[in-house]
Design goal:
It is a single chain. By secondary structure, the protein is α/β, with parallel strands linked by helices. The protein has a single domain, classed as NAD(P)-binding Rossmann-like Domain (Rossmann fold), CATH 3.40.50. Helices cover about 50% and strands about 15% of the residues. The chain is built from 9 helices and 7 strands; from the N terminus they run βαβαβαβαβααβαααβ. It has helices at about 15-25, 40-50, 65-80, 105-135, 145-150, 155-175, 195-200, 200-215, 225-235, and strands at about 5-10, 30-35, 55-60, 85-90, 140-145, 180-185, 245. A 7-stranded parallel beta sheet has the order 3-2-1-4-5-6-7, sandwiched between helices. β2, α2 (about 40-50) and β3 (about 55-60) form a beta-alpha-beta unit. The protein is globular. This is 3-oxoacyl-[acyl-carrier protein] reductase. GO terms for molecular function: oxidoreductase activity. InterPro entries: KR_dom, NAD(P)-bd_dom_sf, Sc_DH/Rdtase_CS, SDR_fam.
Amino acid sequence: MDIRGGVVIVTGSATGVGAACAKLLASKGCNVVINYTKSEAEARETQAACEALGVETLLVQADVANDVDCRRMAQAAIDRWGRIDGLINNAGTTKFVNHTDLEGLTAEDFLRIYAVNVVGAYQMTRAVAPQMKAQGRGAIVNISSIAGVMGIGSSIAYAASKGALNTMTLSLARALGPEIRVNAICPGFIQGRWLRGGLGDAAYEAALAQQERTTPLRRAGTPEDMAQAAVWFIEGADLVTGELLIVDAGAHLGAAPLIAR
């Protein structure tokens, strides 16, 4: 897909991976819908960075857990440009709770996390699908997590939500073809304030050092690394749908096995 002059909606794009996706798309000449819920000042910074690259943007405050907001965001893109070529479902939330602390999560925690991480992605997909179908093409990328593959991460509720997002990716890839491709990336550790704020400085620095010491690539991921993978699914993977791509510097491989003599 040639995305120059195209239109991609990136949910949760004020900061982090979403902002990196928006900027990378803009650098390739793609117009971007920048979405935020609360972080307006940072969203405007992302918007300014994208527009400095010569593209057009829309800034939309919307909560993906609200279906009316999702449909409004999609319609805003259609009203402005008359098309939607891509959607990156990046908006997400969690609660940091040790997996052994079963009393640390309530039913309300699960429902809130699912409302954004799973239902929000579904609602956004539903909102853009008619336009993509009418155009005859489109690409959707869900920003999932290695947590949904390995049952690890910030909390059991978060891991479960990302597992659900992964299976939903497969279902939607079947349902929306041949016009629309649906894929997901599953990041591991991502450097930035989201993990630092959830873990605390000491635990964050320890996890970062472990990533840089033990992964096969001896690196810890950045938002820009994740953006490269997500945008590739939109512009460089015309024959790929229903894939879950782990992007974690090889951390999921574990330690090298001993070789028996």
